[in-house]
Amino acid sequence: MNTKVESLIADYQTCTDQNEQAKIISILADLGDDLALDLLVDVVGVEIANHCQGNVRRVAARGLEKMVISTTDSEKRQRGIDKLSWALSNAEDWALRYAAAVSLGAVATVEINTILYQAMMQESDRVVKERIQMILNNCLIV
């Protein structure tokens, strides 16, 4: 067990300052330890109207990208992809959908191209839709 990661997870859970929470999530993502993946998945899934909490969710979505790319555990990888896909298709926060699209685009698989295309077809926000289109246009996987 990585005590540094465990300590950061505990700090996140007791922290009430959302800027600090975002920093902790960012550090955990940079560390890339699989222990933090569950927390990032949970944070992306939290539905809170507070704009600052939305920032924490967006940081977690971007962090999931790093975790999905770096993990060797296929189950954890799929959990991250599933949560990003959920955020892209279901989150009310357009910026979270945008962050999820960018994160999924960085993972770049045929499966993700399909997810992105389906999300683009249902997306109502022009900025998110254009970003998904840009990702798909630049993607080498067909």
Please, could you describe this protein's structure?
The protein is mostly helical. Helix content is 79%, strand content 0%. The longest helix has 20 residues, at 51-70.
Task: List its salient traits.
142 residues; mainly alpha; 0% strand
Mean pLDDT: 89
Number of helices, where a helix is a run of at least 4 consecutive DSSP H or I residues: 8
Pattern of helices and strands: HHHHHHHH
Report, as a whole number of angstroms, the end-to-end distance.
Answer: 39 Å
Globally, the shape reads globular
Helicity, as a percent range: over 70%
What amount of the residues lies in strands? under 5%
Task: Profile the largest sheet.
Answer: none
Structure summary, number of beta strands = 0
- Provide the gyration radius in Å: 15 Å
Model regions low in confidence, pLDDT < 50 over at least 5 residues? none
